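Posted in: Structural Biology > Protein-Ligand Complexes

Title: Requesting predicted complex, DAU in pocket

I'd be grateful if someone could produce the 3D structure tokens for the following input. Sequence and ligand are given below.
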Amino acid sequence: MRILVTGGAGFIGSALVRHLVSGIGAEVLNVDALTYAGNLASLKSVESAPNYQFLHADICDRARMQEAFASFRPDTVMHLAAESHVDRSISGADDFIQTNIVGTFSLLDTARHYWDELDARRKSAFRFLHVSTDEVYGSLGDEGLFEETTPYDPSSPYSASKAASDHLVIAWHRTYGLPVVVSNCSNNYGPFHFPEKLIPLMILNALEGKSLPVYGNGANVRDWLYVEDHARALFTIASRGRPGEKYNVGGRNERRNIDVVHRICAILDGVHSDKGPHRRLINNVTDRPGHDARYAIDASKLESELGWKAQETFETGIEKTVHWYLENEWWWRPLRENVYSGERLGVFKGR
Ligand code: NAD
Ligand code: DAU
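-- Reply #1 --
Done. Output follows.
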């Protein structure tokens, strides 16, 4: 298999590339612009593999994308490149509109023209997987789950840009026949997670004795999935998903934010009892504007149709994750010192 992955230097993209290169043995071309969130250090374990290539390019650059398709000749595209952080989209949405919407359009149109010229066998085998989020569905109340048929109702500039890109992808299927599949996944966590997101930010702040900023009262619920479970799901959907279909991805691990932070503190208390209790560092801060109350995924279509199941529970995954950060300071220290040191993002005057 020849798989063109976009955003493969990011958190989920790097887990996917490691899985495809080392686990599956696919030929992989990783196309990434290396924004603040892209980090080739996350790909150290595969960088010299004969079945791995890297192309430093922006998905919005149509000429570079056409060259990449023409020279690599993929059977499958797995599109993950995006601006992914909700708080940054609140501070300024320009890059989100550009990469998530215009970039997805650029890639789709490049893929369509490339696919049109393939012979009949390769044409019918070709797949374009668009990797999206459960945030397109908006916010749940106390009951219910997001299903593939749940209407779109995005709240943030980030989720609105992802919703727009999902609509483009489905339109390219209905109008041009491009064999696309869309995956909508819940919150990921695990190794190599950029420390702007809740879990890695809390781990590193707690390790450094810094305040743990919990937005609002901490009662917002997210449905957590270990990143390696997501990488397996993405390969399953790209290889066996039905064209034109959407698949929700999640591991049935709903947790309130405050309970996630308490769990991280308890694990760190076990390791550094002299520095505990880490809970004393928790600080309830101004809420995120437009903060969605609850996300929860019904992944039964993916489980019953394609046989995927999450392997990690939240308890096993969070234990592994905290220990990974304890053991891999070489990876996160340069990011904390040179790229993002943990200051609050996504608040503005008037809220
Ligand atoms: P990330 O921010 O860690 O990585 C994004 C990657 O895309 C980076 O390597 C970055 O350099 C690259 N990139 C950004 N703009 C680009 C451009 N114009 N051209 C080429 N490359 C570009 O993101 P992530 O958390 O790994 O998310 C990957 C995908 O999965 C995104 O599409 C996101 O919407 C989706 N998703 C994320 C989660 C989650 O919990 N993180 C959950 C569901 C879906
Ligand atoms: O649901 C999937 C989405 O999950 C992905 O599409 C996004 O790319 C990904 O970033 C993630 O979005 P969230 O906004 O849910 O993740 P984040 O880690 O930013 O926040 C998780 C929860 O924790 C959310 O309710 C806000 C809260 N939070 C976050 C930060 C960074 C805090 O309370 N304090 C914080 O410092």
